[in-house]
Structure of M48 family metallopeptidase:
Amino acid sequence: MSAEGRFTPGYTVRRSSRRRTIEIQVRPDSVRVLAPARVAQSRIDQLVRQKTDWIITRQRELRLRVPVSSAPVLLDQGSQLFWLDEPLILEVAVDQPETCVHLSPGSIKLALSRRIRKPRSDAIKEQLELWYRAQAQDYFQQRVSAWSAHMKLSPTAVVVRSYRRKWGCCNSRGVVSFNWLLIMAPASIIDYVIVHELSHLKQMNHSPRFWQEVTRYYPDYADAKAWLNSSGTRLQWPPADINSGT
Ligand SMILES: [Zn+2]
């Protein structure tokens, strides 16, 4: 269980003369140690190091538990966004000749045109959403083409839109639709939703035959379903404030 040479979580310490034992409090993005006044710093360090695995697991659990109703963040400089599960820091430049969005490793850069008259926060949210939806349309189009060639199925159209409670949909006219928020999820999860909807072109139900079809192309579908059940609520627009969820 030694975490030697590995990542040790950062933490803050609060000492109290009335305390007799050391307690580690884990929050989604921080760790606080409550300690007796006289205990040595090295003892606290050692304990945190020993408990690293437990702390990381606990934080992961807490982060998954962010409620759907948590306060939406105001998107601005420094906000965290996701693109195919990769965290991105938002950088905003105002008063630019034109509006554009540029994705680079670790960050998403939004330039806002000086002609935009809306309040800054509305403009940021609106322009990013437009960009995300356009990118999601391209991404889904490409992945659906690849999967349909592989599965020898041909949907009549690929639609990316907003759904309140669905990740995807397939109708009797052969149109497959996807929730654009999925573009923030891992690529493997998106693939599952695509295989799921394409499989409906053969089986318009959730019968054992349908799941057989899904399994043929996506054997680990149970993991993907579990991810959507536990972490799907994190796919929101604007993103939820992770810190308010405890
Ligand atoms: Zn279905």
